[in-house]
Amino acid sequence: MKQSRRPRKYDSGVLEGDTNSPVRANSVLDPRSRLKMLGREPYWRVTMTSKMLRSFYWASVLFILAASSADAAGRQPLNLISIVTDDQADWSIGAYGNREARTPNMDRLAREGARFLNAFTCTPVCSPSRASFLTGRYGTQLGITDWITPKEAKAGVGLPPESVTWPEVLQKHGYKTALIGKWHLGNRREFHPTKHGFDHFYGFLGGGTMPMDPIFEVNGVTNKVQGAEPDLLVDDAMRFIEKNRERPFAVLLHFRSPHMPYGPVPSEDSAPFENLDPAIPDFPGTNTNQVKKWTREYYASVHSVDRNMGRLLARLDELKLASKTIILFTSDHGYNIGHHGIHTKGNGWWVAGGKTGPKRPNMFEESIRVPLIIRWPGVVKGGLELEEMVSNIDTFATVLGMLEIPPPNDWKQEGGGFSPLLRGKRMPERDAIFGQYDLHNGGLAYMRMIRTDQWKLVRYHFTSSLDELYDLRKDPGETRNRHENPDVAEIRERLQKKLTAWQHSIDDPILKRDER
Ligand SMILES: [Ca+2]
């Protein structure tokens, strides 16, 4: 079986990048106009940080909570479960076109919910992606621009205590909140999940742990725990949910899998792939045996997550909570196993052409695309497919929009809430999404990206010869860099102008350092 580099044809029969796609580039708008256009629902740019205002806001919230835990119509607030996998590409999921992986439960969520066909991360590595997911602000605005190394964590890099996460907002609106699994936003006590809006934490603070017998923090004590990581995390999630079933809860179940090392996993997860000869990307000089081995192991790790998602979904059904709980499933960024000749993500390294080791910093589609499936009982019609471009920077506004919780007015966030799309409403078209990544661990690259439905421009600061421009319609595999092509000079300039304008809008510190 020949597998395309990335599943492109979806059930709707619409080819992504197809000129008939309803998603259109409307690139004449400057970013501020675009952001305003997205402002139908929680969107705010208030910069006031007065303590008085903050106190008044939370006092009002507490007053409302004291009055009633249900809304005016007597409805109980919906629960929320956020399931975030680590390093999981959309191409690894059946619902996104993979016929070799086994993901019946992720596929079930897609059948029962909405599947986004064009969902992206704003940074293709762990920590900044997670910071943006939780706060609606970009990594450069939070001081987190690459994955946080143990050395950096020790030196004090972490999610600033004054930043506001959406779980913190939910907590203040009466939700019982839990982070179960990966944090990777600082190890020091001031950055601990319990200082960022979580009542409960079970998992690990750093970038990872072993898939079997992991080292977890449990009730504030860090120790080795016996068992498989995804099973242990779901066990704890089920305990938390059962304990808090009578009240609104928000569980962020953030798996370590399928991050490397891919194994070991329980034999029931590896067995289906032991004899698989997986389709792999066709890239010249690929170390085929190695890439196939990784692919088998990756699918096994994905299966270990999927199987446990099945356990969780079954428990929600048993507890009759499925109809009262929104489930959001995504990953922190995408992934390459041989795609473009590289392995891993935005800081991937060459695995082809006799080269192994040197990094290939990138914003390739495989690195920035994420799966995004949202099951919203009573609102989203099962099997819905949405083609609009969305970003994980939108999560903050979207979660509050779905739960009808007003945004705090003392936190400036950058995302656009897309919950109206899920409610079946039309929204103004978004003409572009933006990305950034300052790779400084194990290499150096300072990338900024603008992506429309047709074009992707990647600007490398502090160097003049690495910039990239791809025509995603004619060249979806991103094999022909057209940056220096005079035929598209006008397009390049227009995109560059918009990219720079966006950088100014978020006060990108790199502009002060690179005046090129
Ligand atoms: Ca990751």
Give a summary of the structure in a few sentences.
The protein is of the alpha/beta class.
List the helices and strands and how they pair.
Layout: H1 31-37, H2 51-67, E1 79-85, H3 104-112, E2 114-116, E3 119-120, H4 126-135, H5 139-142, H6 150-155, H7 166-172, E4 176-182, E5 200-204, E6 215-218, E7 221-224, H8 229-243, E8 249-254, H9 267-270, H10 288-318, E9 325-331, E10 336-337, E11 342-344, E12 349-352, E13 355-359, H11 365-368, E14 372-375, E15 384-386, E16 390-391, H12 395-403, H13 419-422, E17 433-439, E18 445-451, E19 455-460, E20 468-471, H14 489-505, H15 510-513
Parallel strand pairs: 1-8, 1-9, 2-15, 3-16, 4-5, 4-8
Antiparallel strand pairs: 2-14, 5-6, 6-7, 9-14, 10-11, 11-12, 12-13, 17-18, 18-19, 19-20
Helix pairs in contact: 8-10
Residues 86-87, 126, 259, 332-333 line the site of calcium ion.
